[in-house]
């Protein structure tokens, strides 16, 4: 049986009178790419904040890399990295200096070599000694993800990682995410770009009205879509069509 990187049971969270999470349940296997989909306000970022110990749940349990997020938050933080919706980089520093700083904060002895390796891995070597303020959006995002990987993280959370990126930069990020998973890193991805989940994810969960309403592989989700009407060529449904069909049904009910 595959080990679980994340286990979530009955997760609930409210903001004053608004109940955002109404009992969320899911598991994420080690080494896979797990995509959490949902409309604006569905609670995706709330789930990420709870799992990364930035927010406390009202009820339910969540375990990350074997550690309970409520009772062992320090252990959770040491075993994960988080890349938020906006690149958390220091614009005054160079790309190299950003990476060295993070390596030193993580108490790594070979901080300069760590920076060199990551700059090379993410194709930033030529621009390593430029100030980050001169970087394009795609370059900042690549640097942001590189900073998240300092210290050989077991699990990385990517909260809408390609928001605001142009198509070319988005493809670069997709390539990096696939490489992370191929190297054994577990990736927890939230996105509004359904094509992104379709291209990357091993498993996809849809968060709607505070609960996970569907959780499975892309092939399993396609089985939930009405059979294609065959006239000349059978058209396979896209993930966007599946998402809208499933969420639409729930709203009607």
List the defining traits of the structure above.
253 residues; alpha/beta; four-stranded antiparallel sheet; 25% strand
Describe the protein's architecture and organization:
The chain is of the alpha/beta class and 253 residues long. 36% of the residues lie in helices and 25% in strands. The protein has 9 helices and 10 strands. The model has no long low-confidence stretch (mean pLDDT 88).
Task: Set out the fold topology.
Blueprint: E1 4-15, E2 18-29, E3 33-37, H1 44-51, E4 59-64, E5 67-68, H2 73-78, E6 80-83, H3 95-105, H4 111-121, H5 137-148, E7 155-159, H6 167-182, E8 186-191, H7 194-200, E9 203-208, E10 211-216, H8 218-222, H9 239-252
Parallel strand pairs: 3-8, 3-9, 6-7, 7-8
Antiparallel strand pairs: 1-2, 1-4, 4-5, 9-10
Helix pairs in contact: 3-4, 5-6
Condensed summary:
The protein is α/β, with parallel strands linked by helices and 253 residues long.
Name the helicity range: 25-40%
Distance between the termini: 37 Å
The rounded Rg comes to 19 Å
Strand content: 25-35%
Summed up, the helix count is 9
Order of helices and strands: EEEHEEHEHHHEHEHEEHH
């Amino acid at each position: 049986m595959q080990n679980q990187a994340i286990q979530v049971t009955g997760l609930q969270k409210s903001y004053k009178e608004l109940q955002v999470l109404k009992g969320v349940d899911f598991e994420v296997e080690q080494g896979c790419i797990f995509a959490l989909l949902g409309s604006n306000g569905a609670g995706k970022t709330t789930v990420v904040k709870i799992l990364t110990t930035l927010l406390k749940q009202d009820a339910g349990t969540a375990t990350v890399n074997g550690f309970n997020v409520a009772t062992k938050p320090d252990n959770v933080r040491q075993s994960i990295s988080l890349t938020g919706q906006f690149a958390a980089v220091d614009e005054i520093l160079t790309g190299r200096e950003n990476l060295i700083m993070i390596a030193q904060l993580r108490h790594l002895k070979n901080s300069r070599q760590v920076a060199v390796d990551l700059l090379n891995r993410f194709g930033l070597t030529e621009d390593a000694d430029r100030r980050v303020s001169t970087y394009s959006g795609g370059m900042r995002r690549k640097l942001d993800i590189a900073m998240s990987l300092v210290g050989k993280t077991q699990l990385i959370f990517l909260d809408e990682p390609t928001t605001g990126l142009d198509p070319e930069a988005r493809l670069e990020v997709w390539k990096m995410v696939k490489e992370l998973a191929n190297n054994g890193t577990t990736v927890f991805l939230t996105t509004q770009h359904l094509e992104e989940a379709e291209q990357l994810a091993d498993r996809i969960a849809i968060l709607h009205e505070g609960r996970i309403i569907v959780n499975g592989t892309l092939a399993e989700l396609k089985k939930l879509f009405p059979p294609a009407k065959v006239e000349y060529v059978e058209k396979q449904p896209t993930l966007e069509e599946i998402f809208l069909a499933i969420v639409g049904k729930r709203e009607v009910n």
